[in-house]
Amino acid sequence: MIFYFSGTGNSAWAARSLADNLNEKLVSIAEALQKNDTLYNILQEESVGFVFPTYGWDIPPIVRTFITCLSLQYQDKKGISRHKNMLDSTYIYFVTTCGDDTGKLLKRVRQAFTLRNLHIDSAWTIVMPDSYVCLPGFDVDSDKLKESKLSAAPQRLQMIATHIKRKQRGVFDVHPGHFPYTKTYILGGLFRHYLMDDKPFHTKDSCTQCGICVDVCPTKNIIIGTEGPHWQNQCTMCLACYHHCPSHAIAYGKQTKHKGQYLHPEAPRTKRA
Ligand SMILES: Cc1cc2nc3c(=O)[nH]c(=O)nc-3n(C[C@H](O)[C@H](O)[C@H](O)COP(=O)(O)O)c2cc1C
Ligand code: SF4
Ligand code: SF4
User: What is the mean pLDDT of residues 213-224?
Assistant: First the structure.
């Protein structure tokens, strides 16, 4: 079983490719939370994977919430539920997609999992096109860099799938980058405090009120009123609304002026009638 979250499609692509490769069931974290579906039966020999983007050198808030609510129940071949300690032998891994590096994300995930009596056997990073645009100096990648990241990703994913198929334990092939502690705990702390906030979102005159941002928001955080979209303070900062807007009409304060948009080539392009 693979639980995944994605804003702009990179992690959705990675999760789907892994699921196809490993013949695993896919569960969308956003949909599961909407439906309050947090109890899952894990069959004997089944692996459990988590695929999600790195946000502020940390776990996206929506993924953290899901882990906090998640209940995994182990079943034997006859479908009989067993004591949860049986999960100790289940192979559990995560794959995070990121634009550059992940800082101390591995430690943060371990801490979140430990609180739920879960362990991590292995973890990998896949560097993919960057989706973050809400700070000065942060923008989507140039076409050249985007293409080179997208063309390297399938090979890396194949390598990861091979490790998972063999249930290889103790492979922690992540990209902490330089100054990982500073990134996750100091910059990331500021990021979580000040920049996981949807108040700066607003629309420009080019908004046609098409409603696509409403449809793509994984937390159902946007409603359209008489004056256009409003953000409801339930944001996980995935930027799906910003990147999907066909009129490029969403801005984040003044930070997104002249910034680009990005969606993974396989991300569904939502259309409204
Ligand atoms: C709010 C936010 C924070 C981000 N923080 C990081 C980061 O700390 N390190 C990094 O390398 N990429 C960061 N990124 C880039 C994404 O991790 C990367 O583009 C990822 O592949 C997007 O996945 P998705 O398309 O599945 O949403 C961030 C993106 C967003 C939207
Ligand atoms: S997707 Fe863009 S154009 Fe459509 S309603 Fe949202 S902000 Fe307006
Ligand atoms: S409001 Fe936009 S950034 Fe926030 S969760 Fe919804 S789609 Fe993502």
Answer: 96
Query: Going from the N-terminus, what domains does the chain have, and what CATH number goes with each?
Result: 2-192 (3.40.50.360), 200-252 (3.30.70.20)
pLDDT reading at 84 higher than 70 = no
Which residues, 6 or more positions from 235, have their beta carbon under 8 angstroms from its beta carbon? 196, 197, 198, 201, 219, 221
Closest CA to 1 of 23, 32, 21, 17: 23
Whether the CB-CB separation of 109 and 59 falls below 8 Å is answered with yes
- For the Cβ of 142 lying below 6 angstroms from any atom of ligand 2, the answer is no
Task: Say what percent of the chain tops pLDDT 90.
Answer: 85
Neighbours of 166 (CB within 10 A): 10
Dihedral of CA 60/66/246/198: which sign?
negative
What does pTM read for this prediction?
A: 0.96
C-beta separation of 228 from 254 below 8 A: no
Mean pLDDT of the chain: 94
Distance 210 CA to ligand 2 centre (A): 5
**Residue 216 CA: which ligand is closest?**
3
pLDDT higher than 70, residue 273: no
pLDDT tens profile 119-136? 999 999 999 999 999 999
Please indicate whether residue 105, judged by its CB atom, sits closer than 6 Å to ligand 2: no
Q: Would you say the CB of residue 207 lies under 6 angstroms from ligand 2?
A: yes
